Amino acid sequence: MAVLEILVYPDPRLKQISKPVTQFDGPLRSFVQDLEETLRAGPGGVGIAAPQVGRFERIIIVDVSSKPKIKHHGRLVLINPEILSQEGSAVGREGCLSVPEYTGNVARSKFITLRAQDEFGKPLEFNMERYEARAVQHEMDHLDGLLLLDRLVSRRDLFRRQTQEATAPKTKTS
Amino acid sequence: MKKWYMLTLVGQDRSGIVAQITRALYEGECNLGEASMVRLGGNFTVMLMVQFAGNEKALDDLIGPTCRSFDLRHHVDAIEGELLHHMEPDVRITVYGADRSGIIAEATGVLAEKGFNILNLESDVGGTTQNPIYVMTIEGIAEQGIEVLEEALQKLSREKGLETQLEPIDTLIG
Ligand SMILES: [Zn+2]
Predict the structure, then answer these.
(1) Which of A3, A74, B82, B158 is deepest in the core (most CB within 10 A)?
(2) What is the pLDDT of residues B8-31, one digit of tens each?
(3) Which residues of chain A lie closer than 8 angstroms to B34, CB-CB?
(4) CB–CB of B160/B136 below 8 Å?
(5) The model's pTM
């Protein structure tokens, strides 16, 4: 196991699009271990994507279980993740291991249905909401070369968005 | 050694202000730090961190001609500047209601009593001339926890007829 070096913007490699994983073998699983160790090594991180450590394959790890009072699925290794459906939109504050000393407001879908594979290639499907869904969308963006910097909304939009949301008809929640 | 200054500008909003001012600063070999530039009630206002080798007078002379050409009032203060040491807000509060005098003082007064440290406050007046409404969003740090702030805001709503919302900001790092 090893803590890997995290690429930091403006490293151009962070803008690269990652390839799907095709081989679910030992080397993949040992990389996943290293990726997880890298995530755990930093304070407060709830997710990490393979391209953040310079491996351009569609692998992310998300674990929001340290946050109080939210719904989640624990520690997740998500390989070749795909969002099958999404609903709602909410603005929340995000930072990034690859963008130190910066946080910004980003709009994300509130509810997602996600399909992925685990590190053995087994198919997975989840209904996720809010914080966990946000973490997955943040990490999946890294697979497509997108950073939170590409999705910022201005602070002044916040109130307008919230009021719009409060008055909009309620959507189905699962 | 370059020193930090806070440059304040106020004037009628006209196109090209930002471009011309920052051009003059660039040509005078200034570095720019964090900035807030916003139109307030038809005035264009700028608060801009400027790093400059000379003294206040020299900086004043540098931007004087551009300010005069745009009819901008300007002011220069020597400051202790520090970049890359951000404080992260953990609470966002919205207060709104029919516009009347004292709203900000009432709201921020009770919040200050309960240990709320304001990092950012934005307010707008909307509505109509007959019925103006006041909308304020504040981000800051709840130094004595969120519960005491929630109680204080509920009391404020009841007693002063203001609508208030408090929302924790849980910055997602990924
Ligand atoms: Zn990130």
Answers:
(1) A3
(2) 999 999 999 999 999 999 999 999
(3) none
(4) no
(5) 0.89
